[in-house]
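Predict fold of NAD(P)-dependent oxidoreductase; 312 aa.
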Amino acid sequence: MTRIVITGATGFIGSNLASLYLRQGYEVFALVRPESQSRSILPVHENLRIIEGDLDHVLDCVASIRQAEGFLHLAWGGVNRDEIDSQEIQARNVAGSLDCVRAAHLLQCRVFMDAGSRVEYGRLEGIMEESAPCRPVNQYGKAKLEFYQKAVPLCEAFGISYYHLRFFSVYGWGDHPWSVISTLTRDLPRGRTVSLSPCRHQWNFMHIADAVQAVYELYRSGCEAGEVKNGIVNIAGSDTRPLRSFVEEIHEIAGYRGNLEYGTFVQAKEGALSVRPDITKLRQLTGGRWQEKVTFRRGIEEMIKKEEAKET
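Predicted 3D structure, encoded as tokens:
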């Protein structure tokens, strides 16, 4: 049975990735912090192996796993507003992530993939292609970019194919309760008022099912490659438009219940940054095996139904 290691497996994307790999017949080793309060998020499966450890001690987990084909690194601390600009916390993230690459080498992994972020691009006008210059505006984005730049030569030296996955806005059931999609699909059907930014900037949403399938197909691409490959890949959907358009569509699906208050939400220091991802590379690398299947409307309808089911 093929083995895969996942850090951040109790997170939104990580738990969904673990479920997908288990369905595909993999043995999944999930690295979970000893003090984690989110273990219930992990899928229940006979081929799931929980390994206790954190980024500061990831190399200690190698002996328990022994060997794996791939390493999916999604764990990252300091993503809230209070810590996102902490140089100390972000530096620890980079150091621990580089240890993940070293662990992948010791485990004889063929592929290493990690969760980058759209914030690495920073204030970029126009289409966000992977080759575009990056100007991150916070320490989180700077640390993600720094890790990528240091991981490329390390993976090349180890002979590991490496994809740096720049996730944009992935949504779906189980996402953070404070995300804009979770807030709207929870509060509008209940007749509540939702405070928002002006929502004039361009945005892009991708359903979690499409996102994890894209990662899986990229992983297969990395395993099938005859030579070591590395590079950045945007993980995003094809639907880019003003954020207000998405918000109004959710309001319509919710039967126009609740109220929208534009311009009353206090944004992060970087302000409203438009995102226009190019996913040409994602399509090329997956060789047509990945196709977006969940429309925004369908994804929102499913979330609202699940929210309403909680009330009954």
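The first strand starts at residue 3 and ends at 7.
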